[in-house]
């Protein structure tokens, strides 16, 4: 479905203007722009760029926090240790698995919830919206504990409530195996962040022009056809933003794993690995190398999303 | 920092130096001791407590980060013994004055002194000492015909539980408690996790592939595969064990003495029948081999003084007050944490509150500390990775763990 836009207008240079130079007005505008964005830019540099650069710097050293005297430069050796360790690749695999499963389920569920919110009767809409958003307001550690208690073999209710399901018994130890542990971890993640995706998709739904829907209706398109041919193509930018944010988020999964299994049964994620080297082992050099690799993975994901979706973010913001 | 805090304290106390005591969470006992010692000091100091996270590994993480940044606000620290070598080696602990070292080790159980020592020097002040006992249901032992007045082995316990269809509770979760169990097994078999110690990580020699290491893995797998450990053994913690033992399937359990106060409070709260703790029996930790005495786990808390504190002398003065016999006795009675001072166990009130006081003291005298090394996190983490789940322990596990921990210590592998 294509959008009708006016053909681009070619600007003509004023005859008096010297070629290539910018006018006083646009220079002033540019200056104002920097003044307005400057403070935020400086804060960003301080709180993000500085720690990232420091991590990159530390990752080149053999550096243990409790033994600062023996800090020594060892080039890329830390990266070599990380990249040749099967544990790293296992963690990458587990992280990707959790990311793919949770984001896929969340997208479908989130879209359904967004449709419910947009179609709900006007007077119950605020209630529906609030109810859907509650899980997102819960702190991740708290939600992880809640799910852990629910599935715990001694304190949990899941085993007794769902004993009628095949594979669930009163003695099912959910956190005793890789598959079942990952299942609960994914479930907790999905419960917690589906509202986030549905909120972003709701904003996208609201942007789909009603005239297009009506035109399609007049042409005899069914509900299903309108969903696939009108609604979804028109909210591509919103879907991309939702997917991108959630994928980046899911790739950094930590809290649920830390609370539920503490990395047992091969459920370590990349973030957990970084935590263990940096915080538990206080091997700042090695841990920083893991963190830098995690950062690069996140950058790669963002890059692939933006290229893959071929969406102009400026367009998504309605600037063009 | 201290003066700022004192100023915040308000009133006429602004001239009194404030000692910040970082404590592990308890039932309020350390805060009470802090208040009492502040009063007794006659204005020489005032102790303010700050509570650390619940897990001992998380306590260490926070303290290491703060001390690595030369945090002067840390005057007194409640330290879990396995982390003491790391703190001492890194220079995080102020040296113990010689005369004080003599006084605070007098009449203290041996394992507690060992746990407070690094490189043949006392680096912390022994406060309270913990040890695991073998708890059993008298009715179950009787039904199984097991004579509990004699030392028993793990094999005997498992057989008795199988015969009576009851549960043997131990800690199979991938956590510090697994290291506690494994260390007790290897020490009971006459070996050690670290065969040859060193401050250089490359030089540390492990003893996991030696005969005692193999025996430890064997017993671990024997218990885990016995079919009498309950359905979630690989996630079982000290609390899970206590719950199992309180249930009607409870048979035998290795655990810290807190399970006694826990059962009594449950009776008081009406959630447990009074006949249950009446049925509790206790004895020394089970043996690995019939003719070798067991080496029970040792735990507890020692007091360290922060190296960057502005009031090192005052802080050491305070440790003497905190660890006085009276305070240890009261702490034991109110919070259930066993004293490190031998004399406390003769206190009639302690004897009344803890009918097993003599067994605890005996167990403490025989207890073996966990591997003492500045690289404890690596050693313990490596053990947990390889020996979990406990049912997977085999005669190859020792070799694998030894290779992993060695590579991690040399900085060649992640953990």
UniProtKB/TrEMBL annotation, chain A:
Xref: Pfam families: BPD_transp_1 (PF00528)
InterPro entries: MetI-like (IPR000515), MetI-like_sf (IPR035906)
Membrane topology value: Multi-pass membrane protein
GO process annotations (BP): transmembrane transport
Domain of life: Bacteria
Transmembrane segments: 32-53, 88-118, 130-154, 174-191, 284-306
Keyword line: Cell membrane, Membrane, Sugar transport, Transmembrane, Transmembrane helix, Transport
Compartments it resides in: Cell membrane
Chain segments carrying region Disordered: 1-24
Segments forming domain ABC transmembrane type-1: 92-305
UniProt-listed PROSITE patterns: ABC_TM1
GO CC terms in record: plasma membrane
Family: Belongs to the binding-protein-dependent transport system permease family.
Protein name: Multiple sugar transport system permease protein
UniProt source species: Geodermatophilus amargosae
Automatic annotation (TrEMBL), chain B:
Organism domain of life: Bacteria
Entry keyword set: Signal, Sugar transport, Transport
Record family assignment: Belongs to the bacterial solute-binding protein 1 family.
Region described as Disordered: spans on this chain: 367-400
Bias type Polar residues, positions: 391-400
Pfam families named among the record's database cross-references: SBP_bac_1
The keyword Transport is annotated on this UniProt entry: yes
Keyword flag Kinase: no
Protein name in UniProt: Multiple sugar transport system substrate-binding protein
